[in-house]
């Protein structure tokens, strides 16, 4: 076993921290307040190769792997949970699915543009009545001559209103049950597509939208994989995108810990630094230990993927669950320790607090992760396949 980062990973981590310190952290609160989507920064990260770590060089990636991508995600997530989302929209939920299931032509057409962020991507699973219950989605893509006609709506889709392309999950045949679900790469500028941005508590510089599809004509080659491969592609994709959320949760929790440490060493009350009070020490001890646990679980899941185990749903659920709970615990703890300085919008802790909750919701809620784990433990349903 080797728990250390090699030189290459360490250098990537430091470079990403430097980038985040310079390009993201000074602006993150303002962007959040103004609901501003900093597309130039997202594109710059694409030019720097941030989204291409698990993608072969042939398609413009660096092929350095999932652990590398996870470390970059954690560092960016330490600065902004909104910008962190781009690792999913550009790579794990999009380019990677095309890499795993697309034709050679689709790979060449979509992957380089996504990972360089020349094109902004999104992936559309969730619907108004299909959140945790993915299979109950209602969108349809009916065979029509040489292509398909897409109808339905999606909601809570990150980056949808700014996206050029989207992977959309829809039933080509509802009567065929899970065999009737398929995945399509959709040009978001097509006729019949409209979006509407949603208002939300946090991650306010990452736009989240509803999408409406009205008789959208899809060419035959928009189908990813075969008809009926939707289940395999969607759950395979969730298994990778959860890694990004876990890494983001670790990054946010780390930012909370750093804010607390700085405050405890500066702020004095009752004639001493507030870090000298045992109640604050207890909290800092809990925060630091939980962050280490979440980080190790997340790195382990990434490492497994680098060994070729992309179907590591169980270990991914451990990581996503613990990272989500850790992010929320650390944000609440930071708020308690910083008091009014935490509650004030002048300091980033208020933003961390609003953003943290999302890590308990996105990419499978805390309860979904616990259910996956428990069903596996009980022997009712194996998580890894
Ligand atoms: O056998 P079958 O052909 O009927 O297929 C079933 C099963 O084999 C079917 O799905 C298959 N399947 C899988 N295939 C490959 C299930 N899990 C896997 C897998 N890991 N790999 C239905 O299976 P089932 O067991 O009957 O599932 P279910 O009871 O319908 O649901 C299970 C569960 C609740 C775990 C699942 O639906 C789930 O994971 N729900 C959570 C949905 C979720 O994570 N949504 C996230 C939306 S995207 C998002 O949040 C964007 C965030 C952006 C950002 O911030 O980064």
What does this entry look like structurally?
The chain has 385 residues and is of the alpha+beta class. It folds into 3 domains: 7-120, Acyl-CoA dehydrogenase/oxidase, N-terminal domain (Butyryl-Coa Dehydrogenase, subunit A, domain 1); 122-230, Butyryl-CoA Dehydrogenase, subunit A, domain 2; 231-378, Up-down Bundle (Butyryl-CoA Dehydrogenase, subunit A, domain 3), CATH 1.20.140.10. Helix content is 52%, strand content 15%. It has 12 helices and 10 strands. A 4-stranded mixed beta sheet has the order 1-4-5-8. Strands 2-3-7-6 form a 4-stranded antiparallel beta sheet, with no helix packed on it. It has a two-stranded antiparallel sheet with strand order 9-10. The longest helix is centred in the middle third of the chain and has 37 residues, at 230-266. The radius of gyration is 21 Å and the shape is globular. The chain starts with 6 loop residues before the first helix and ends in a 7-residue tail after the last helix. 50% of the residues are buried. The model has no long low-confidence stretch (mean pLDDT 97). Glutaryl-coenzyme A (GRA) binds at residues 85, 88, 125-126, 132, 134-135, 158, 178, 231-232, 235-236, 238-239, 241, 244-245, 313, 362-364, 368, 372, 381, 385.
The biggest sheet amounts to: 4 strands, mixed
CATH secondary-structure class of the largest domain = Mainly Alpha
Point out poorly predicted stretches.
Answer: none
Q: On the 0-100 scale, what is the average pLDDT?
A: 97
Q: Quick one: how many beta strands? A: 10
**Name of the CATH superfamily of the largest domain:** Butyryl-CoA Dehydrogenase, subunit A, domain 3
Helix count, DSSP H or I runs of 4 or more residues: 12
- β-strand percent reads 5-15%
CATH architecture grouping of the largest domain: Up-down Bundle
Principal-axes shape call: globular
